[in-house]
Write a structure and sequence with these properties.
- The protein has 572 residues and is mainly beta.
- It has three domains: 42-136, Immunoglobulins (Immunoglobulin-like), CATH 2.60.40; 146-355, Jelly Rolls; 359-571, Jelly Rolls.
- It contains three helices and 40 strands.
- The strands form seven sheets. Strands 9, 13, 14, 16, 21, 22, 23 and 25 form an eight-stranded antiparallel beta sheet that branches. Strands 26, 28, 29, 31, 36, 37, 38 and 40 form an eight-stranded antiparallel beta sheet that branches.
- The protein is globular.
Length: 572
Amino acid sequence: MKKINKYFFGIFSFILLLTSCEYDGIDPLTQVDPGADAGAPEVTINYPNEGSTIQVPEAVASINIRFEVVDDIEVDMIEVLVNGNQIATFDEFLDYRIVKKEVSFDNVTNGEHTLTINATDTAGNTTSKTVNFSKEPPYTPKYAGEFFYMPFDGDFIELVNIYMADETGSPVVSSDAYLGTGSYEGTADSYIDVQLDQDNLGSEFSGAFWYKVNTDEANRAGILVAGANEERQQGFRLFREGSAEEQRLKLNVGTGTGESWNDGGVIDVAEGEWVHIAFSITPSETIIYFNGMPMNTGTMTGAIDWSGVEQLTIGSGGETFSYWDHRADINSNIDELRLFNTALSQADVQELINASSITLDLPFNGDYRDMVANREVTEVGSPGFAGESVEGNNAYAGAEGSYLQLPSDGLLSDEFSATFWYKVNADPDRAGIITIGPEDEENPDAQNNRTSGFRLFREGNADEQRIKLNVGTGSGDSWNDGGVIDVAAGEWVHVAFTISNSESKIYLDGELVNTGDVSGGVDWTGTDIVSIMSGAPRFTEWGHLSDQSYMDNLRFYNKALTAEDIQAAMGE
């Protein structure tokens, strides 16, 4: 009984304490009138953006739709539609004034799509917001007559027709790539076969690729073979023969009743360099090109015969052309393989070579997609889009604490260049623009290791901003004080810089503004990430953080551009 009385006494004391709060200066909760409804809800679609393009190998893709609805009184209902079909509705919210949602949609097919968000508040006001987006195959042919493209960036997929190659033995994707992140590398008794469609095979035919020869295992090998049998009267055979010092690339073409030979040209093995190989076939002749120059011409007595040709063998003579020991091309590398149903001219071949120097292409047309190799680009913070552009339909817009980051694989070369359009915002008065630098392990909170990579940044005031470049050479660093942009002009400026083995150059609107000495060229040790529109996370000690300026049409190159190259890039 005493125990029960103690419980009642405790409860009574607690209630008394609560009621006394009013007298201790703490008012009880009271309802506040939210007032009259001032208008319709505000709808913001964060993804996809207007003009976004989804490119994946799968025929049907999934996306996560992200949006926000804000109302001054209370959101009553939200409806999500894709192509006019309702995929989700919401009518219960934890926060009835600010609603943030993410909706998964797993039926994005190739073509154009429309996303609509309808939001209604409790007063019956409705707002509808719509964006258009699309899904495309992972690659769309860029050149006339192109029907086949294999970049070898991590796999053996042919991207025009989405064919996966059949593997014999153990061929590998090497990180030693001319462009992108990978290349085909031959191994003993190994090669790949890719299906060919007869509809793409006609009286004219061409092939082009980058090639780095290795003769350690064999002084002869097949490179590309498309044959019907061992008679050599159908299809073609591109192969190499020679010694440890030099290799001659040859072409054999079947004409149905006979064959044509082209003895091609010689590659210096000791140089160990990538060589651009191209060949063209017409009913009258064949031509083999090295680095854009014609090496030899062969006579054809009629059109190439494709009877019974069903596949292309890459990296070996395969089943139809191994009887002269033209077997696996061991340890040689093949990259950026393209086939055409037209005869390439010398100008066409040169265009392919020029395009192969572009290693990164970010047009910022409503997304952060790399047009060269579909690299994964990570958004840090909340970068946005400018709503204006020099080219295309949009440009990158920087925001505080925000930038883009991606792996540097396939982007680092002995020579390097970058070009982009830039509209500066001088607040803050300094910022990083492009940074490819190493981690400063000794100063984790003030990163500033400048012995490798480079840092492109700006410094100045509200009236003018100077674009500067710092390049790491391994044992030290090189400075280029660049040139000045007039902030008050508020104009787009074309910015370009180049790094060679001896110097760096900065160009503004196609004019060289300054040169810096770079003894021995750039050193890339430890430079595994690229930051775009910020110095973070690898160049922060001096306050070169996020750039809230606009950037459009950013490109990286694997060579030091000439002034003529830069002026041509401005005009594209």
